[in-house]
């Protein structure tokens, strides 16, 4: 009986130590992020900021989305004319090594052809990186890489 209590306490202590270890890389996606999407030549194609909230089951709530550089697919449109959806998975271990996947789609509202910006990437520590593609109406095309950085809390 005594050994099982000690074992349980030891496991609880190890679990708690792992939860608090390396909190700056906890993998918590909740918060405001800034994204820069670059073309294959290194020039900025799109830039935006947004707030992510993990909704569990690989869901991602996206709010406060604002283009700072809307690029060719979104510059003629207001925020009410497009929507954002996302997905996020995360795994890690007790050493604070966090990895996962990230996906996001920004789509205009049109009855036939939509402009679509698709991001697919990886979560590593406190950064999200990956590739993007754009497609839609004439003038809306391209691809490249992106980087998300968390913004400090206000």
Structure description:
The protein contains two helices and eight strands. The chain has helices at 2-20, 71-74, and strands at 31-39, 44-54, 59-69, 82-92, 98-108, 116-124, 127-135, 142-150. The protein has one domain (25-150): Lipocalin, CATH 2.40.128. Strand 4 and strand 5 (98-108) form a beta hairpin. The chain is mostly beta strands. Strands 1-2-3-4-5-6-7-8 form an eight-stranded antiparallel β-barrel.
What overall geometry do the principal axes of the alpha carbons give? globular
In spatial order, strands of the major sheet run 1-2-3-4-5-6-7-8
* Helix content percent band: 10-25%
Q: What is the fold named in CATH at topology level?
A: Lipocalin
How would you state the average pLDDT, rounded?
80
Written as H for each helix and E for each strand, in order along the chain, the element string is HEEEHEEEEE
* Portion in strands: over 45%
Distance between the termini: 50 Å
Which architecture name does CATH use? Beta Barrel
- Low-confidence segments: 4-26
Largest sheet: 8 strands, antiparallel, barrel
